[in-house]
Design brief:
The complex is a heterodimer of chains A (625) and B (401). Chain A is mainly α. Chain A has 2 domains: 212 residues, no CATH class; 287 residues, ABC transporter involved in vitamin B12 uptake, BtuC (Orthogonal Bundle). The longest helix of chain A is centred in the first third of the chain and has 32 residues. Chain B is of the alpha/beta class. In chain B, 44% of the residues lie in helices and 19% in strands. The longest helix of chain B is centred in the N-terminal third of the chain and has 22 residues. Classes of the chains: A mainly alpha (625), B alpha/beta (401). At the A-B interface, α1, β2, α9, α13 and β6 of A face α2, α3, α4, β7 and α7 of B.
Chain lengths: 625, 401
C-alpha cells in the first residue's frame, strides 16, 4: 500500500465505523442498565434503514426530506424499542438470567417477517444524500463526501451521549444502574421508567445507525443478522457499558477491515496470503485477542457482583427411573407404529437433545454461558466426515473418534474461556466458534469449503433409518444420562458450588478453574458426539453446522425448555425441532408464527416449559394440601 | 337385524366404494419441491410464481399419465441438514414421486447426494455450482440452470475482444464466486496468454465493504474488472465505484447483473456499458417466450424475473420426464431425463446424457439506462451447449458411477 491508499483506507475504515459505533453504543447502553443481551438490536437497525427509505420516498429527495426522514425513522425505531420493552421484556425481568435472550430471538423472527411483508423481498436501494452526492478529492483519490460526514458524526454522537450521561440526572441514573441497579431501585428510582427510557435511547441509536446507512447500503432482509454479530463484538471489545470503549472498538474493527481489503493478496515466503478473505473473520480474531489479554474489554471494568436479579436456581431434581424407562419405551416403540418420517424427525430430535443437554450442562449448572456451542457440534460432525472420507476409517471408528476430536478442541478453547466470566466468556466462545467456522469455510482442499463434505453415510448395517434411529437413541441417550449422572457426582456439585459462589468454592479448596475447564472438555466431547450422529444421519455436512445459527438454536432449545430443570433442554429440543417442522410446512410466514409461539411461551412460562409446568404442579399440590 | 335388504344395501355400498377406488387412484402426482424461500426471497418469490403457472398449464392440458400434477413445496431454511430432512418428508410422508428445487450450492449438493443414496430422481433448479454435474455428479441428479462455468464462458468472447491486459477481480467469498473466478481466469488465459490479474478481492457474501474494495481495486489500476457480485453487494459496489470514479475508462464484466432480480433495484444508477449475463424479458420476441410472458402477466399482473423462468422450466421438465418415462419408476424417470428435450421460454433445451446438465442458455449483453431504469442492450442469446467444455473434459471431471 502506498501512503495515499493507506490514508484513504483509513478514512474508509472510519466511515464504516460510524454506523457500527451508533448501533453498538445503543446495545452497550441497554445491556449496561438492563443486563439484557438484546439480539433484536440488529432488527432495529434494519428497521431504521427501511423506515428511512420509505420516509424519503414520501418526503421527496430534498435535503430537508432526507434528513427529516433520517431523524424521524430513528425516532420511530425508538418507539418500536419502547414497545418491545413494555409489551415483552418488562414482563420477564424476574425470569432466570438470559431468558430475555429467548424473547429477543423471537422478536428477530417476527420483525424479519413483518419487514418482508411490508417492504417485499426486493432490495431497496435508497437515494444518495441530497447535496452530498459528489466525491471529494484527497491525495488524488476520490472519497464520497457523505463518508466524510459520517466520520464526523461518530465523535459528535459520542460527545452527545457523553453529555447526556454526565450532565443530566437521567445520565446519572443510567450510570448508577449500570454499576448497581438493585441499589438504584432500593433508593426509590422507578426502574420501569428508567429501563423504558434506556430502551428508547438505545433503539434510537440503532435506528439512526441504520437510517444513516441509507446512501451506502440497500435496505434488505439480511441486515439484522449481518450487523448484530459485529455490534456484539464491538460492545465486548470496547468493554460492556463503556460508550468510549465502543467508539474505540468500532474504529479498530472498521479500520482493520479496510486495511485487510487494502493490503489484498500478498506473497510471503512463497505463500500466498489473501488478507481480503480475512475480512470474513477479522473482527472475531480481534475480539479473541482482546479478551485473552484484557478479560473485560479495552475500557471495561469488572462487572459488579450482582445481588441476585432473580431467585437463585433451585436444586436440580433427578428424574426417577420409572419416568425415564417409560419415555425410553415410548421412544423405542415409535418406529414400529409411526411412519418413516417420524423416525427421521426423531433422529434429529435425539441429536439436538444431546446437543442442548450438553449446552445446558455448561450454561446452567456450570454457570458458563456459551454463545458458540455449535463449534463442538460442528467439529464433531466434520471430524466424523473427514475421518471417513479423507482418512478412510470405517464409519463406526469415525463416529466414536469424533467426540474425542471435539474434546481436544474444547481443551484448547476451554483453557482460554474459563479465564473469563459472564458475557465476556460467552463472547469468547462465540469468537472461537466463528474462527473454527471461517477455517472450515475457507479450507477448500480439506473441508470442502463453503459446500462441505458429502457422501457421509453410515455403514451398511446402519443404513436403515429405523436401525440408525435406535443407534442414535442409544448413543445420544447414553450421553444425556452420563451428563446427568455427572451433575450428581462430586464433580457436578463442585461446579454448581462454583456457579453459586465462586469465592466460597475457592475458599473450601475447590480448584474451580480446573473443574470448569474439565466441564468444557466434557460438554465439548458430548456436543461432538451429537454432531457426529447428526452428520451420518444426513449424509453431508456443511459449514452451517458450526454457524452462529446453530449455536443460537441450541440456546433457544435450552431456554425454551427451562434452564433450571434437568429435562427442560430435552423438551426444548423436541418442541423446537418439531415446531419448526410443522410451522414451516403449514404457513408461509413461518418465521413470524414461530416467533409468535416462542413469545407466547416466554410470557406464559417465564421459567421455560418444564420449569413452568413444574411450578404449576407444585402450586396445585399446595392448594390441595 | 340383518335382513336381505340391508345385506343388499351393504353390498351395493361396498361395490360403490370399490368403483370409487380407481377414481382415488386418479389423485394428482405429487412432485416434491424444496427451496430456501426465506433466505433468498428476492429470487424465490418469482420462482414460486413460475412453478404455479407451470402446474396450471400442465393440468389444463390434461396433466400427465392421465393424472394432474401437484407441486408440494417446502422451505429448507438454506440449511443442508434441514434440506435433507424435508426431502425425506416429501418422499416418505407426502409420497412425492421425486424431488426438484434448491437454490444455494451447498444445499443443492447435499440434496443431490441424498438423491443418490435414496435412488430418487432430483432435478436441481437453481444451484449454479459446477460440481453438481461434474466433480460430484451422480446418476440421479440433473440440473436445469445455466451453470457458473457456462455463464462465465459466455462472457469470454467479449472479454477477449477488448484485448485488455490488466484485470482486477472481485467475487463473493463462497463456492459460486470462487468457481466463477477460477473459470474466468483459466478461460481468459487460454485465449489471451499475456493477460495479467492485478488484484483480487473476496468480500464475504452480503457484507462487502464496498468503499474499501472499490479503492483497493482502483489502486491496482486495472484496464478491466471481472465481478460475480449480486444482490446488495452489487448495489453497494456499483454506487461506491461510481462515486469514486473506479469505472471511468475501465470495462466491467459482471455475471448475473442483467437478471431483473439484481438489475432492477439499481434503477437510474444501473451501470451503463457493463457486460453481463441476464434476462431482457421485455425485449424477447420468440413465440415461446411471448406465450410465457403473456400467461405470466395475465396471471400475476407482474413481469417475470429470471427466477420465474427457472421455476416454470423446472416443473415443465419434471412433467415432460414423467410423460416420457410413462411411469413413476425411478430408473425409468432417470432414463427419460437423459437426453430429454423440451421447449422452455428460452427455447429448446436438452438434458445432456453425458453429464445431466441442461443446455438452457442465457442472454449476454450490456447494461443500458432508459427512463431511470436499467435494461439490457446489444444482447444476444447464447445456447448453453455452445458454452460447455468438450465431452472428453467433462468425462474426466465426472466420476464414473
Amino acid at each position: 500500500m502506498t501512503l495515499a491508499s493507506f490514508i484513504i483506507q483509513l478514512l474508509n475504515g472510519l466511515a464504516a465505523a460510524a454506523s457500527l459505533f451508533l448501533v453498538s453504543a445503543g446495545l452497550s447502553l441497554i445491556f449496561g442498565v438492563t443486563r439484557i443481551v438484546n439480539f433484536a438490536h440488529g432488527s432495529l437497525y434494519m428497521l431504521g434503514l427501511y423506515g428511512a427509505y420509505s420516509l424519503i420516498e414520501f418526503f421527496g429527495r430534498t435535503p430537508l426530506g432526507f434528513w427529516g426522514a433520517v431523524a424521524l425513522s430513528a425516532l420511530a425505531v425508538g418507539l418500536v424499542g419502547v414497545l418491545i420493552e413494555v409489551l415483552v421484556l418488562r414482563r420477564i425481568y424476574r425470569a432466570p438470567e438470559l431468558f430475555q435472550l429467548l424473547a429477543t430471538f423471537a422478536i428477530v423472527l417476527v420483525i424479519k417477517d413483518i419487514a418482508l411483508f411490508t417492504w417485499g423481498a426486493e432490495d431497496l436501494v435508497g437515494p444518495r444524500a441530497p447535496g452530498l452526492t459528489m466525491a471529494v478529492e484527497i491525495m488524488g483519490r476520490r472519497i464520497p463526501a457523505y463518508d466524510l460526514l459520517l466520520i464526523a458524526i461518530g465523535p459528535v454522537v459520542l460527545g452527545a451521549i457523553w453529555l447526556l450521561l454526565t450532565r443530566t440526572r437521567w445520565g446519572a441514573l443510567v450510570r448508577a444502574a449500570t454499576q448497581d441497579r438493585e441499589m438504584v431501585g432500593a433508593l426509590g428510582v422507578d426502574q420501569a421508567k428508567l429501563f423504558t427510557s434506556v430502551f428508547f435511547v438505545g433503539s434510537v441509536l440503532a435506528g439512526l445507525g441504520g437510517a444513516l446507512q441509507i446512501p451506502r447500503e440497500p435496505a434488505n432482509l439480511e441486515l439484522d443478522l449481518a450487523i448484530i454479530a459485529d455490534a456484539f463484538v464491538v460492545t465486548v471489545v470496547g468493554g460492556l457499558g463503556s460508550i468510549g470503549g465502543a467508539f474505540l472498538a468500532a474504529i479498530i474493527i472498521g479500520v482493520a477491515k479496510a486495511f485487510c481489503i487494502g493490503i489484498g493478496t500478498v506473497t510471503w515466503f512463497g505463500f500466498e496470503i489473501s488478507f481480503s478473505k480475512l475480512t470474513l473473520v477479522v473482527e472475531f480474531l480481534i475480539m479473541a485477542l482482546v479478551l485473552v489479554v484484557r478479560p473485560y474489554g479495552l475500557l471495561g471494568k469488572p462487572q459488579a457482583a450482582q445481588r441476585a436479579a432473580s431467585e437463585p436456581a433451585p436444586p436440580l431434581q433427578v428424574p426417577s427411573w420409572t419416568f425415564a424407562l417409560v419415555w425410553l419405551a415410548l421412544l423405542a416403540i415409535v418406529p414400529l407404529v409411526a411412519d418413516r418420517y417420524a423416525t427421521i424427525l426423531l433422529t434429529d430430535i435425539v441429536c439436538f437433545a444431546l446437543f442442548s443437554v450438553s449446552l445446558h450442562f455448561i450454561m446452567g449448572p456450570a454457570g458458563m454461558v456459551s454463545f458458540g456451542h455449535a463449534a463442538y457440534f460442528g467439529i464433531g460432525a466434520y471430524a466424523a466426515g473427514l475421518l471417513l472420507k479423507r482418512f478412510g476409517l470405517p464409519m463406526e471408528a469415525a463416529l466414536l473418534l469424533a467426540p474425542v476430536i471435539a474434546g481436544l478442541f474444547a481443551i484448547v478453547y476451554g483453557w482460554f474461556c474459563v479465564r473469563l466470566s459472564g458475557v465476556y466468556l460467552a463472547m469468547l466462545t462465540l469468537a472461537f466458534a466463528q474462527i473454527s467456522w471461517s477455517i472450515v469455510f475457507q479450507w477448500d482442499s480439506v473441508t470442502g469449503g463453503s459446500n462441505g463434505v458429502f457422501g457421509v453415510w453410515p455403514a451398511a448395517w446402519l443404513a436403515d433409518k429405523t436401525v440408525y434411529y435406535y443407534m442414535a437413541l442409544v448413543l445420544c441417550g447414553a450421553g444425556i444420562v452420563f451428563l446427568w449422572l455427572v451433575l450428581f457426582s462430586p464433580f457436578g456439585y463442585a461446579l454448581r458450588a462454583g456457579r453459586d459462589s465462586p469465592l466460597r468454592a475457592e475458599a473450601i479448596g475447590i480448584d474451580l478453574r480446573g473443574f470448569q475447564w474439565a466441564a468444557f472438555v466434557l460438554v465439548g466431547a458430548m456436543a461432538g458426539l451429537a454432531g457426529a450422529v447428526y452428520a451420518f444421519s444426513k449424509g453431508s455436512i456443511s459449514p452451517s453446522s458450526i454457524s452462529i445459527a446453530q449455536s443460537t438454536d441450541g440456546l433457544i432449545m435450552v431456554l425454551l425448555g427451562g434452564v433450571e430443570t434437568l429435562t427442560g433442554p430435552v423438551v426444548g429440543a423436541a418442541i423446537f425441532t418439531w415446531l419448526r417442522d410443522v410451522v414451516a410446512r403449514n404457513t408461509e410466514f413461518w418465521r413470524a408464527v414461530m416467533g409468535g409461539v416462542i413469545l407466547l411461551i416466554v410470557l406464559l412460562f417465564p421459567q421455560g416449559l418444564v420449569g413452568g409446568l413444574k411450578l404449576l404442579v407444585t402450586r396445585w399440590r399446595e392448594q390441595r394440601a | 337385524m340383518l335382513t336381505r335388504n340391508r345385506l343388499l344395501a351393504g353390498t351395493a355400498a361396498l361395490v360403490a366404494l370399490a368403483l370409487a377406488g380407481p377414481a382415488a387412484a386418479q389423485a394428482p402426482i405429487k412432485i416434491g419441491e424444496l427451496n430456501s424461500y426465506k433466505v433468498f426471497p428476492a429470487f424465490l418469490e418469482p420462482y414460486k410464481k413460475g412453478i404455479e403457472l407451470a402446474v396450471e398449464e400442465v393440468n389444463a392440458a390434461g396433466g400427465v399419465l392421465g393424472r394432474k400434477i401437484e407441486v408440494v413445496s417446502r422451505d429448507d431454511n438454506g440449511n443442508p441438514g434441514d434440506a435433507v430432512r424435508v426431502a425425506e418428508e416429501l418422499l416418505s410422508r407426502e409420497g412425492a414421486a421425486f424431488l426438484i428445487g434448491t437454490f444455494p450450492s451447498n444445499v443443492g449438493l447435499a440434496v443431490a447426494d441424498f438423491a443418490k443414496q435414496r435412488k430418487v430422481l432430483f432435478i436441481a433448479a437453481e444451484p449454479l455450482t459446477d460440481k453438481i454435474v461434474w466433480d460430484q455428479g451422480n446418476a440421479y441428479t440433473f440440473r436445469l440452470r445455466t451453470s457458473t462455468y457456462m455463464q462465465t464462458a459466455m462472457l469470454i468472447p467479449d472479454a477477449v475482444k477488448l484485448k485488455k491486459k490488466r484485470w482486477a477481480i472481485v467475487y463473493p467469498n463462497y463456492e459460486y464466486g470462487q468457481s466463477a473466478t477460477a473459470a474466468f481466469k483459466k478461460l481468459l488465459k487460454e485465449k489471451q496468454p499475456d493477460v495479467e490479474f492485478v488484484a483480487e478481492q473476496a468480500p464475504p457474501l452480503g457484507k462487502i465493504d464496498a468503499g474499501a474494495v472499490a479503492q483497493a481495486l482502483a489502486d491496482a489500476k486495472p484496464d478491466a474488472i471481472f465481478s460475480s457480485l449480486f444482490g446488495p453487494d452489487l448495489a453497494k459496489f456499483v454506487r461506491e465505484g461510481q462515486t469514486r470514479g473506479l469505472f471511468k475508462g475501465v470495462e466491467v464484466f459482471n455475471l448475473l447483473a442483467g437478471e431483473p432480480e439484481y438489475l432492477d433495484p439499481l434503477k437510474e444508477e444501473s451501470p451503463d456499458g457493463w457486460y453481463v449475463t441476464g434476462y431482457p424479458w421485455s425485449e424477447l420476441k420468440t413465440p415461446e417466450h411471448t406465450k410465457f410472458l403473456n400467461a405470466y402477466q395475465a396471471k400475476f399482473k407482474d413481469y417475470p424475473r429470471l427466477g420465474s423462468v427457472v421455476g416454470y422450466a423446472t416443473v415443465m421438465s419434471a412433467a415432460e420426464a414423467i410423460k416420457k418415462a410413462g411411469s413413476l419408476d425411478q430408473e425409468k424417470l432417470v432414463a427419460a431425463m437423459k437426453g430429454l428435450t423440451l421447449i422452455t421460454p428460452f427455447g429448446m433445451v436438452e438434458y445432456r446424457a453425458i453429464d445431466h446438465q441442461s443446455t438452457m442458455g442465457a442472454y449476454v449483453g450490456q447494461i443500458g439506462v432508459k427512463d431511470g431504469k436499467g435494461y439490457m442492450k446489444n444482447w444476444r442469446f447464447v445456447d448453453g451447449k455452445d458454452a460447455l467444455p468438450s465431452d472428453a473434459d467433462v468425462q474426466k471431471m465426472r466420476p464414473k458411477n
